[in-house]
Design a protein that fits this description.
The protein is built from 16 helices and 7 strands. It is of the alpha/beta class and 368 residues long. The relative contact order is 0.12.
Length: 368
């Protein structure tokens, strides 16, 4: 009887029909399409509006769910996970960007320590493509764990310790999205005392398609690059991506570099806010901060670090370090052979071992 009723609406079901397209389903499909056609003829109704909103909501929910689970494999999420499981024996941490992530080998640092009785338990918490704000957030988080730090090794390059900080929506991409995980603390760095900034970071941080949007773009970019290389020689890559991405035309950036350093020297404002907060936290926990001018290839040293403005900048950084009870280590020329670099900025594995071993001996000598 049911099939007979359906026949007049959608026709008879023959043997070639799919089981899911039997008359009971076809009736509902016919009614839905008829209802949609009626809406087109008589204009939108409250029911159609609610249905459209429900469909849009489901689409947005699905996208957010996919982005959320996709971002779980990101380096920032991996680091966030590790920050909750820091070994209680940890007494030395390395913080900074990818130069520290690549250049500080904790095993080589520990092995090269000259005194086995005081051998450190180091942990590398550096995260590539980040700013001092993220470094502060990472450091602040690790101090919530039951550890007793002795040394905080903060690796940097160029004017990183004094540069203005920016935390706009367009800035917090990639690993800089780490700021969304700690909106209250991050907002205090970008806009001190602003409730609006805290609310904005908190809200965006709870919408994966906004906070973790770079995860989607990164996946699309990888696919685009693979398609681009079809039939062509493959670009040289390392753990940070294409080597060419770091081969910046450095000579062209000299005027900008000089202007930034000159402004720091002229304004005389000292370290940036997050760097000062790192120093403050370290003093509260009786930890010694070491600012390490990370090793750079010969081209970078020749173009930038041999200039008069950088020599003056370096003197200023030493002065600020002394005033803050921190130690400044000039190590940019410690690895003189460019074969120990995997691109125009990062040490390779052998270079990292060489540098970390020398750094360990230097730090150990400071404690004598």
């Amino acid at each position: 009887m049911f099939c007979g009723m359906a026949w007049s609406l959608v026709g008879i079901a023959n043997g070639y029909h799919s089981p899911v397209l039997r008359p009971d389903f076809q009736i509902h499909l016919h009614r839905f399409l008829s209802w949609m056609q009626k809406d087109k003829q008589h204009g939108p109704t409250l029911g159609s509006l609610l249905a459209s909103l429900a469909i849009a909501g489901m689409v947005i929910l699905t996208i957010n769910t996919v982005v959320h689970f996709g971002a779980r494999k990101s380096l920032r999420r991996h680091l966030l996970h590790n920050l909750e499981r820091v070994p209680a024996s940890t007494d030395t941490v390395f913080i900074g960007n990818s130069l520290v992530e690549a250049g500080c080998d904790t095993r080589a640092f520990k092995t090269a320590w000259p005194d086995d009785t005081t051998s450190p338990a180091p942990l590398n918490l550096a995260l590539g493509d980040t700013s001092p704000v993220e470094h502060y957030l990472i450091f602040n988080r690790v101090l919530s764990q039951p550890i007793q730090l002795k040394y905080v090794v903060y690796g940097f390059f160029d004017d990183q310790l004094n540069a203005p900080i920016s935390g706009g929506f367009a800035d917090l991409l990639g690993n800089r999205a780490f700021s969304y995980y700690f909106p209250v603390e991050a907002a205090e760095m970008y806009s001190p005392g602003s409730s609006l900034a805290k609310s904005k970071l908190w809200l965006i941080g709870h919408i994966p398609m906004l906070a973790e949007r770079s995860s989607v773009w990164e996946a699309v970019e990888l696919v685009r690059r693979k398609i681009e290389e079809i039939g062509l020689p493959k670009h040289k890559t390392n753990r940070y991506g294409r080597v060419d991405d770091f081969a910046i035309p450095e000579a062209r950036d000299v005027p900008g570099f000089n202007q930034r350093c000159e402004k720091v020297l002229r304004d005389h404002k000292g370290f940036s806010r997050p760097v000062n907060e790192i120093l403050h936290l370290a003093r509260q926990h009786d930890a010694q901060v070491l600012f390490v001018e990370m090793p750079m290839p010969s081209q970078h040293r020749k173009i930038f670090y041999s200039s008069p403005v950088w020599l003056e900048m370096r003197r200023y950084l030493r002065e600020l370090s002394n005033q803050s009870q921190a130690i400044y280590l000039q190590t940019s020329d410690w690895v003189g052979d460019d074969s120990f670099f995997e691109d125009a900025m990062h040490l390779n594995e052998e270079g990292a071992k060489l540098f970390s071993a020398k750094l360990a001996r230097e730090v150990a000598a400071l404690g004598k």
